[in-house]
Amino acid sequence: MSFAFFDLDDTLVDTRTALHAWALEFVAEYEIGDGDEQAAAEVVTHRVRRIFELAAGKLGVELGPDGWMVGDMLDKDVEGGIAAGLRTIWLPHDVARTAGDPEPEFAAASIGEAIAIIERSAE
């Protein structure tokens, strides 16, 4: 079964304060790292594989090549997806890649196009 995580909220609203508070609670509850500011920062940037494992577990799926991370942030969404062993789709929103950015497997102009890529890969 294919599945995909979508993270597009960084372009819609500034959720920094709420996300930081949630991340501190999350790392304490799931005993990630020392449950401190550093661990929370790693969760917020999706650089902790454990956050993907927990999400996949709630869906009843395993991380791997049948899973996708779709997002608009190369350094968070794409890098985190790669680290979790997921296939990646980047929605660039007129942002150009620069040297050192992680390499997404695909780029898509819209969520609809991203979904079409996922559907085609399942055939």
Describe the secondary-structure layout.
Blueprint: E1 3-7, H1 16-29, H2 37-44, H3 49-59, E2 67-71, H4 74-83, E3 87-90, E4 106-107, H5 111-121
Parallel strand pairs: 1-2, 2-3, 3-4
Helix pairs in contact: 1-2
Q: What can you see in these coordinates?
A:
The protein has 5 helices and 4 strands; from the N terminus they run E-H-H-H-E-H-E-E-H. By secondary structure, it is of the alpha/beta class. The chain has one domain: Rossmann fold, CATH 3.40.50. Helix 1 (16-29) crosses helix 2. It has a 4-stranded parallel beta sheet with strand order 1-2-3-4, sandwiched between helices. The model has no long low-confidence stretch (mean pLDDT 81).
